[in-house]
């Protein structure tokens, strides 16, 4: 009887807890949504800020460029901090910085204060990907990671979608300062929730990994050894390339559709909305697909091939305006499907005990791409070539296929060598 009870107890502990996994995924997802909300903490308020500070659009654009530059550099460094002190502590610090940044921006009296607030927000934003993915990889069972990464991506899209509505509504009803002050409440409220549930985000496993990493370093390894792996830099290139495509869509898809198809502003905006909604749906489907295969580069190649071809169809201007809006949704669906497979591909490429560092370096490519895309595609639009916008998006998505396949092949070979050894 005692033996049967012991076997049942061991079986219960061996089976990963669905409830625990769901709670961890939900908490990390909420934090990621806040991060993406703050990507757009200023852009929706540009009409108010332009008038309040007598700024040009170039000066306003530079505020966002500063945000992503600080976030990109900080993200590469944050990964090392995550691996050293734990993801939970770093995540809490990042959320707190976002709240402080919004408060500072709400009290800005000059362009310099806007830049300072944007830099602080970029610093806070820099911690999320290395912290989030370390927590998901350490605290969620392996068979549910595909779904975890799917929820993580969807929550980010929801953050992007919520920011313009929240900020412009409050700015119209009150003023831009009130909108930013209200926005500051979001990360502080999130921090309270995460702190109350801090045991679910416990760092015991992470500290064990760091300790193991320390022993490895003492045995002759080095904290920067992972940077010698070609797969890591191919992952970085993948993120940079896909971020260039995403940045083009976020910044200029609406004016591009208007110029190519003579759409109204509402119809062109509907095209971007279709992209975002379909992208979220694609992430749900992509989570199931990623959970059923280990060759994630194949899923990515399939998804981006379809998205890239559809981008070229839109660029040709040969379809009715309504169909162009639908095709924007197809592009988003393909990008969404690739999301969970992309994150699992990076996980497979990351050396043991270097998860935070790898995600930090790799995801810094996302920020760099988002900072550079508006400059490139803005120049194309200024030159009167809206079709080149969608051609460029298609080309970048096609290039991403080659980097993803290279990462998958490199990782598979490394696994075969390790197994043979």
What would you note in describing this structure?
The protein is mainly alpha-helical and 421 residues long. 85% of the residues lie in helices and 0% in strands. It has helices at residues 2-14, 18-39, 46-53, 57-85, 87-106, 111-125, 128-139, 145-173, 176-196, 204-218, 230-261, 265-291, 296-316, 321-349, 355-382, 386-420. Helix 4 (57-85) packs antiparallel against helix 5 (87-106), helix 5 (87-106) packs antiparallel against helix 6 and helix 11 (230-261) packs antiparallel against helix 16 (386-420).
Can you give keywords for this protein?
mainly alpha, 16 helices, 421 residues, globular
Topology overview:
Blueprint: H1 2-14, H2 18-39, H3 46-53, H4 57-85, H5 87-106, H6 111-125, H7 128-139, H8 145-173, H9 176-196, H10 204-218, H11 230-261, H12 265-291, H13 296-316, H14 321-349, H15 355-382, H16 386-420
- Characterize the main sheet: none
Fraction in beta strands:
under 5%
For the record, give the distance between the C-alpha atoms at the N and C termini, rounded to a whole number. 44 Å
Radius of gyration: 22 Å
Number-wise, the strands total: 0
Global outline? globular
Count of alpha and pi helical runs: 16
Structural class computed from helices and strand pairing: mainly alpha
Mean pLDDT: 83
Uncertain stretches of 5 or more adjacent residues? 4-15, 205-220
N to C succession of SSEs: HHHHHHHHHHHHHHHH
Proportion in helices: over 70%
């Amino acid at each position: 009887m005692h033996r049967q009870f012991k076997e049942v107890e061991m079986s219960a502990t061996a089976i990963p807890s669905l409830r625990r996994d769901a709670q961890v995924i939900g908490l990390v997802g909420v934090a990621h949504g806040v991060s993406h909300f703050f990507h757009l903490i200023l852009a929706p308020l540009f009409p108010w800020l332009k008038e309040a500070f007598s700024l040009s659009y170039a000066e306003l654009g530079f505020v966002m460029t500063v945000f992503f530059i600080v976030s990109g550099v900080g993200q590469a460094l944050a990964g090392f901090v995550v691996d050293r002190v734990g993801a939970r502590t770093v995540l809490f610090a990042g959320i707190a910085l976002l709240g402080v940044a919004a408060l500072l921006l709400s009290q800005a009296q000059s362009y310099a204060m806007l830049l300072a607030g944007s830099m602080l927000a970029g610093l806070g934003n820099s911690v999320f990907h290395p912290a989030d993915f370390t927590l998901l990889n350490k605290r969620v069972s392996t068979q549910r990671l595909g779904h975890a990464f799917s929820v993580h991506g969807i929550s980010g899209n929801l953050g992007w979608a919520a920011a313009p509505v929240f900020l412009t509504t409050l700015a119209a009803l009150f003023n831009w300062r009130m909108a930013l002050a209200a926005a500051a409440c979001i990360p502080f409220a999130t921090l309270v929730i995460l702190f109350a549930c801090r045991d679910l985000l416990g760092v015991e496993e992470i500290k064990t990994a760091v300790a193991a990493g320390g022993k490895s370093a003492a045995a002759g390894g080095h904290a920067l050894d992972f940077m010698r792996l070609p797969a890591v830099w191919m992952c970085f290139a993948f993120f940079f390339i896909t971020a260039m495509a995403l940045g083009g869509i976020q910044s200029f898809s609406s004016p591009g559709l208007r110029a190519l198809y003579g759409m109204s502003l509402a119809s062109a905006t509907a095209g971007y909305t279709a992209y975002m909604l379909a992208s979220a749906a694609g992430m749900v489907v992509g989570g199931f697909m990623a959970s059923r295969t280990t060759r994630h580069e194949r899923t990515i190649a399939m998804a981006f091939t379809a998205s890239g071809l559809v981008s070229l169809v839109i660029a040709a201007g040969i379809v009715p305006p309504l169909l162009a809006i639908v095709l924007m949704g197809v592009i988003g669906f393909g990008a969404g499907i690739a999301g969970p497979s992309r994150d699992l591909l990076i996980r497979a490429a990351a050396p043991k005990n270097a998860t935070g560092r790898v995600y930090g370096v790799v995801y810094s490519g996302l920020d760099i791409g988002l900072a550079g895309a508006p400059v490139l595609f803005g120049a194309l639009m200024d030159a009167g070539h809206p079709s080149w916008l969608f051609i460029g998006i298609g080309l970048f998505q096609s290039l991403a296929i080659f980097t993803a396949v290279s990462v998958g092949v490199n990782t598979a070979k490394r696994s075969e060598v390790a197994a043979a050894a």
